[in-house]
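Q: Sequence in, structure out?
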Amino acid sequence: MPMRNRSRLFLLTFVVALFMGMLCWPANAVQAKPNADEPKAIYKVDTDKKLVALTFDISWGNKIPEPVLKILKDKQVTKATFFLSGPWTVRHPEIAKQIKNMGFEIGNHGNLHKDFSNYPDAWIRQQVGLSEKAIKQVTNVKTTLIRTPNGDFNPRVIKCLNSMGYTVIQWNTDSLDWKNPGVSAIANRVLTRAVPGDIILMHASDSSKQIPQALPQIIDGLRAKGYQFVTVSELLAQAKVKTEVQ
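A: Exactly. Output:
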């Protein structure tokens, strides 16, 4: 058989074999179904009610937290969730107590500000245990919500934290206030992205220099859109109620 004909025959055989192989390929090998049992973090809650949770991470400084708290008081915002790091809580116990005494919800933001996914479960348990102990000693709050440092996690990390009794809280709307992009940029980002059931990420650390100016605009703007403020736990309860009704 001439070389040209051999090449054509080989090519035809290869194409037929490839086609038959695709027909016999298992459907789940092409597109795996998502695992419903895989541990998950909470970004937002599915609800028709105009409810949002304002959340503030604090891991450094004492210049920004107090103005943020004053704004919330002046604007009569009584529901918000603060995620506190252990070392910050120890260094600034009076501010941590003020957050508790104002009735705001307190969550855990870890101890060392390092990505949990880079460390084994034993390290994660130790770090979360240290911050949990510090928050409990200062505020008498046993935390059950956690926002991991840098928002870093993977399924293993979530599974480890769930086994400690924690619900991992992320965010759906990120203010990017830590980048200090400008007061209007921070406020507009939140106001244009917020949706019912949203968890909104902000910071009350000293690195977020513009949040005291942006926060009043965010509060007023969300209220003008008909939103009410709740804690993260209250938002999660809405999802539970909806599930039970269904």
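The beta strands are 51-58, 81-84, 105-108, 145-146, 167-168, 173-174, 198-203, 228-229.
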